[in-house]
């Protein structure tokens, strides 16, 4: 009678595969999300953040795009929530700190300065220089003499 357990070429029983082959999929962790937000708020570069959490830059951008784009705002919002809770609890220093942060943000929310006029391009500058050359340079006399001779 044949044994119902399948075996390999060496007679060992074949075990079912428990894991997929190849590289394991990156696991996005909530603690890493908060860490990426904090590091973005601290002005770390994407390369530095990727090295710190142990992944590639492309992987960082793929899994943590929201944190990279909005991390500083998320951290500042959480910090303000903590200050608000402390303020409601009666801590006077928290009240003053919260008011200082609000005043700083009001100061930076003013209208930006207008941008200066853009410089003309190469062709535009050459046309400007050419029109000025006939009137304002020593060439003007030479051009006038040449026109009289013709």
Structural overview:
Helix 1 packs across helix 4, helix 2 crosses helix 3 and helix 4 packs across helix 5. The protein is 63% helix and 0% strand. It contains 7 helices and no strands. The model has no long low-confidence stretch (mean pLDDT 81). With 150 residues, the chain is an all-alpha fold.
Summary tags:
63% helix; 0% strand; mainly alpha; flat; 7 helices; 150 residues; single chain
The biggest beta sheet is recorded as:
none
Low-confidence segments, given as residue ranges, are: none
Structural class: mainly alpha
Mean pLDDT: 81
Question: How many whole angstroms does the radius of gyration measure?
Answer: 35 Å
- What portion of residues belong to β-strands? under 5%
Envelope shape: flat
Total strands: 0
Question: How far apart, in Å, are the first and last alpha carbons?
Answer: 119 Å
What is the string of SSEs from the N terminus onward? HHHHHHH
Percent in helix:
55-70%
Q: Number of helix segments?
A: 7
């Amino acid at each position: 009678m044949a044994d119902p357990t399948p075996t390999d070429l060496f007679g060992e029983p074949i075990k079912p595969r428990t894991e997929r082959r190849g590289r394991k999929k990156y696991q996005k962790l909530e603690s890493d999300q908060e860490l990426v937000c904090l590091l973005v708020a601290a002005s770390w570069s994407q390369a530095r953040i990727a090295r710190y959490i142990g992944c590639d830059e492309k992987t960082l951008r793929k899994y943590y795009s929201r944190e990279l784009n909005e991390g500083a705002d998320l951290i500042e919002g959480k910090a303000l929530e903590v200050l608000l809770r402390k303020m409601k609890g009666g801590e006077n220093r928290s009240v003053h700190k919260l008011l200082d942060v609000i005043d700083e943000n009001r100061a930076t929310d003013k209208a930006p300065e207008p941008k200066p006029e853009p410089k003309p391009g190469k062709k535009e500058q050459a046309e400007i220089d050419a029109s000025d050359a006939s009137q304002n340079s020593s060439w003007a006399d030479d051009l006038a003499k040449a026109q009289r001779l013709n």
